[in-house]
Each structure stands twice: as C-alpha cells, then as structure tokens.
Amino acid sequence: MPGWGSYSILFGPLVALVAVAVIALLLRWGWSRGHSLVPGRARAGGEGDYGLLVPVAEPTTFVEAEALRARLEAEGLRATLAPTTDGPRVLVFPRDEHVARDILRRSA
C-alpha cells in the first residue's frame, strides 16, 4: 500500500492551481462592472426625481438657495437643497409645503 509520500509530487501543483483559481475568481469579481459596493457619483435629476420631496423655491444661485433653506430650518421645518437639472431647488415634504411657502413669502 503506497504511503502519503508517493502522492506528494501531485500535492504541490494541485495547491498552486487551486490558489491561482481562487485569486482569478477574486480578481474577476473585483474588476467586474455594475456590482460595486461603493456608490457612484450622484447625478442631478429633475424636480420629480427626489421622491416625496416637493420644490417650494426656485432660486437662481446656490447661495440664495442655501439662505432660503436656512430660513426654513430656523422656522423649524426640515428642508433640503437639491441641484436639479433646472437649477437649485429648495425641497420640503408635502405636509410642510404650504407652511414653507408662507414663510418664504413673508421673508421676501
């Protein structure tokens, strides 16, 4: 009956082959497209691309938009500034839309 020593000549190349195959699979997974765990760059969308949020102001510059957003935040409303394809927009939730418009109308 042959001992382990007679198979040792096959053991080294077999381990190397398995190691190369595992490395090849890891590299193939790591360099494949479309399956990244890291999100891509954010892109500007239209006004309707922001889920439940609705636009309440359409300022011409981001500085003006940030001032309007800060005014709404000071009044206790949650607001966000979004760079849309039509320019900067100040967005709020639908339940806060009328209150936000009133606040912005008063401050203008």
Task: Give the helix/strand layout.
Blueprint: H1 8-31, E1 54-57, H2 62-74, E2 79-84, E3 87-92, H3 97-107
Antiparallel strand pairs: 1-3, 2-3
- Sheet-strand content, in percent, reads 5-15%
Q: Helicity level, as a percent range?
A: 40-55%
Low-confidence stretches: none
**Global shape:** rod-shaped
End-to-end Cα distance: 96 Å
Main beta sheet: 3 strands, antiparallel
- Give the oligomeric state of the chains in this entry, treating copies of one chain as homo and distinct chains as hetero: single chain
Q: Which H/E pattern describes the elements?
A: HEHEEH
The DSSP helix count reads: 3
Strand order of the largest sheet: 1-3-2
Instruction: Report the average pLDDT across residues.
Output: 86
Computed Rg: 29 Å
| Quantity of strands, as a count | 3
Structural class: alpha+beta
Short description:
This protein is of the alpha+beta class.
What does this structure look like?
The mean pLDDT is 86. The chain has three helices and three strands; from the N terminus they run αβαββα. It has a three-stranded antiparallel beta sheet. It has 108 residues and is α+β, with helices and mostly antiparallel strands.
